[in-house]
Request: fold
Amino acid sequence: MRTMERTFLMVKPDGVQRGLIGRIVSRLEDKGFKLVAGKFVQVTEKQAKKHYAEHEGKDFFPNLVSFITSGPVFAMVWEGDNIIELSRIVIGKTNVTEAQPGTIRGDFACHTPRNLIHGSDSPASAEREIGNFFDSQEIVDYDKSMSRWS
Ligand code: RTP
Ligand code: MG
Reply:
């Protein structure tokens, strides 16, 4: 069944520092997803707390906020069928000891909190996260060949 969705994906500060933006974006393009918005952002503390609101109160929350604000990120909106679930498969498990080879984290990450990329975990999270980083006019609607999955 086709469920066209949008998700918020973000190369975290460690991915930017390690020069992995291009390779991470390539993997998402290779999968067949459609990029509809992207920008380089220095995340503010307020924006970080909103982004990770579901983790507020957990012991790792302060570290998470300081990590995500420690340097620029590459924030993106991607579109595709069932992309929220599928992109998390491409990203791989949170814990680097569980992330399988062939996934972004499995191939490039070796330290759990610094796991290179964020992906929304539900349609509600995606909507909130996209709104936290992008104005609607920054998201570009355009035709892209559907031949890879038609
Ligand atoms: P993300 O939200 O960044 O895409 O990662 P995720 O869904 O795979 O993992 P989530 O449970 O949402 O956790 C968010 C991020 O918090 C850091 N974390 N640290 N116990 C810990 O120290 C711990 N647990 C999670 C990771 O950077 C994780 O990606
Ligand atoms: Mg998460």
